[in-house]
């Protein structure tokens, strides 16, 4: 089994303010993303992660985001299985995000 690092919205917001190398991937559906995303996040719906894996940087810390943290955990497990070492799940999802959003 893979050990997936989890961070909450407050921790991610703090990390983003200190470090611009974090790569945030939002795996929600189009209609969810239309309500707002974390600034700088890349939108790749969960079902498209397998075909988009070559577009993800293996040398950067990835933080995967969904609405409540379940789909993003599945994406993290998939990425870990495919050799990505620096993957974290936003455990409380966008529901726990209190930072800025962009529409």
Automatic annotation (TrEMBL):
Residues 18-102 form the Rhodanese domain. PROSITE patterns: RHODANESE_3. GO terms for molecular function: transferase activity. Transmembrane segments: none annotated. CDD domains: RHOD. Pfam families: Rhodanese. Keywords: Transferase. Gene3D superfamilies: Rhodanese-like domain. This is Sulfurtransferase. It comes from Pontibacillus yanchengensis Y32.
